[in-house]
Structures are given as structure tokens and as C-alpha cells.
Design goal:
It is a single chain. The chain contains 17 helices and 20 strands. It has about 475 residues and is α+β, with helices and mostly antiparallel strands. It is globular.
Amino acid sequence: MRETYDEYEAAGRLRVPVAAWRWATASGLVPAPDAGTGRWSRAVVEAANAEAVRAALRGPTGASWAADRLTEALGEPLRFRPRVTASAIGHLVRAGLLTYLGGEPDHPDVHPDQVATLARRRDLPALLDRHVPLGPDQAAHRLGVRRTDFDQAVRLGWVTPIATVDIDYKRQGGITTVPLYSAEAIALLPLTRPSVDWHALRTLTPGRRSPLAALTPDPPGEARVLLAGIARIARVGRAAVVTWRRRHPDFPTPADGTDVHPEFTLPDVIAWLLAHDKIAIPTGVPAATLSVRPSLGAGAAERLRMDDPILELTDDPTGEDRLSGWMTDTEADTLAQLTTAGAALARLTAPGTTPLAVPDGLDVIDRFRAGSGGLRVTLAWPAHLRGTASPRHTGGVIRHGLPHTALTDWCRCARQTCGGIIPTPYCADHGRVVEPVMEWHPADGIRCTTLRHTTPPVSSGTGMPS
């Protein structure tokens, strides 16, 4: 009688599918191989519960189904993130994140429960970047640029293939060898090449010549960077890099240059910065959240998302503020419909600024589809209306009041640095029972900032924003 079994022999002994035995091993239902690589002893195989092994499989699912589930987990919109493909599932299996249950190794069958567990992981974007290489079109999508711009980056030597794959296009010329690129290297390009205006590159319209076409390729060999260049990549001062070099024995060794101006190889620098948490691989894209409602209050507010936002706030009270970013077609249509009849920005939460609001005048001034296929929308509103958003769930602008009469000692309204107050409902001078004579302005808006520079400091009272 056979004393050891491989996976096929073990499955045959229990009369279960090979996929069931593979999943039982991966899930811990049966012990790991104990008789050598990929082999089990007779005692282990005979001790296994065939019905439990068969029931645990629940039917393997194909790579295309698994890819769709992981794409759904990434969320919408997929700005700067290509869809997960069936071939990506093969890479995840080879990385040990999914168990191979059968089928073609490049497009394997996997277990739906394991796919669901992977989809729930918060680090899913980082795992995909680390283990799934990208073709040229996918790489351009990951970077958020046109394919022609990505081809220029390859010409310049900024990225190089890490592997290739043969694809049979059948009616379109037969088998073609396609280069594959590291998704992490692609995502790092805006950091490793800080001199490039990536915002401008991502908003180029189809047909325009790539700005990268005028640049000279890197010299043969690995790219070099000075201390000042390392500082730009890490977004710190040059002195900080000098300190890192002095304090960390593992700081990269200069490859060229002088004692005053040493040169380092860029890959070594990037590896060190990542290892010491000085930079991070961008796994997502910053986003702004907009709560937009009809300015006349006739209708509920719509919550919208804008990716990779650029917020331009002017200091000119006669000018306008602008916000631009990527939106889905559906949300862009909703925004356009709201602004046609007049809309208010009840609350805008964007990176780099406190939540703000605008009571009226919201307008879509530009909407175009860039060469990467994304839809970019630009909003504008009168700058003098902009102010800090209320913390209430309905949003709205917090307003400061400048009393036309002197404040009394018993007033407990919150005093503001601009010289105004935020009235409390129970204040005898400024509450709901009276109609105080005051000049109102949006909190932290243009008028508020001007008054703050010209008003002597005031002591702050107590009170809650109305």
C-alpha cells in the first residue's frame, strides 16, 4: 500500500476534487505536507474527513470573477487605478495571497471566501502595487496621463520593464510581446521626478504634444541625484538630508561627485527613503468632498466627490475662487444640473484647507475630457462669499457679527480676532429675542481676514456658533 501521497493521489484516495484538497491544505483543514515537499503521509490522508474537505471547497471561482470583485473593492471612481484583470489574479496566487485551485496558472481558479477576505483588506491597493505589474496602457492609467506621455517617460529612462508577457491578439497581428512595469515605480514617478508639472501633464487634451518630448533622456546607467535633489523628493530642506546622512550609517554611499556635492544613485536613494518612512508610495489619490444644494433651499443637498483637487483661493474681494478636479460623468451631470438653477456649497472638505462653504454663486466654468479619458471639472464662486463651514450636518457659512454698539460686560458671545462675535441664542444684546444691529461677514473669509489685520486683539468669551 502507498505510504506517501501527492495532492492528486491524496484527492483520489479521498475521492474528492484536487481543488478541494488544495483548499483544505491552504485553509488548515488538513495538515501541511509531512512527508516531503508536496507529499503527505498515509496517516494524514486517511485521517482527513472526505466530506468536510469536499464541503469546504464551495466551488472554485474563475479569475475573471475574482478580478471583478477586487475591482469593486477598490471603489469608484478608479482614478489613477486600472481595473484588476484576470492575469493579476495569477500574480496574487504566485505572491501567496490567493490559493491556486486549478485552471491556467496565469488565470487560475481561486476560492471565493479567500477573494472576499482579500477584498476587505485596507492595504489592498498597496498589495496590488507591490505584486501586480502593469502593461503600458495600465501604467499610463496608474499615472493618470496619456499613453503617449508614458511612452515618453520610458524613452527618458525614468521607468524600465521588469518582465514581458506574450499576448495573442489573433486578428490584430498574432502574438505580441508586451513589456510589464512595476506599479510601485510608476506610482513613485511624481515623487522621483518633482521637476515635472504632473497636474499640467494629467490635464493635457488629446492631440497636444507631450511636454516630456522636449526633455533629454537620462545618461546610460542609473540616474544620479544630489543632496538638494533628495531634499526635493522627500519634501524637506537640504539640511535635513545632511543630518540623515550623518546620523544613519546605512545612508546610501555616493556613486560620484565631490565631497561638497556628492551624487547618489536614484534607486538607492528611493529604497532608503522608503525603508526609513521618509516617503510613502502613493496608493490612492487625494479627494475633496462637496455638499451642494440649491441656493434657495428647494431640495436636498447632494454629496459629491472630486479627485486630485486643486483649490485656488484669491485675496481679491472682487475676484473668484476656483476648484478643479476629476469627477465621474454621473456626479458631474448632477453638479451641472444643480448649478444651472443656482447652487450653494454647503460644505467643502479638501486636503490642505479647513472646511469651507459658499452660500450662493456656485458655477461650473469648465468641463473637459483629458487625454487619459478622465473628466475634469472646474468650479468657481465669488470670493467675497466664501467662509468657514458650520460643523452642523446641514453645513452653511459661519458668520461673524460686528456690533454697531459697544459690547457690554454681561455679553458672553464668542469674541473673534476680527473684532466681531458669534452670537449665542440666549444673549440679551445679540440673541434671538432681539435684532442686533450688526455688520455680518463670513468667518475666515476675505472681509474677516482684512479686519483681523486692522483690529486690536480682543479677549474671547464663551458661546456656541449659531
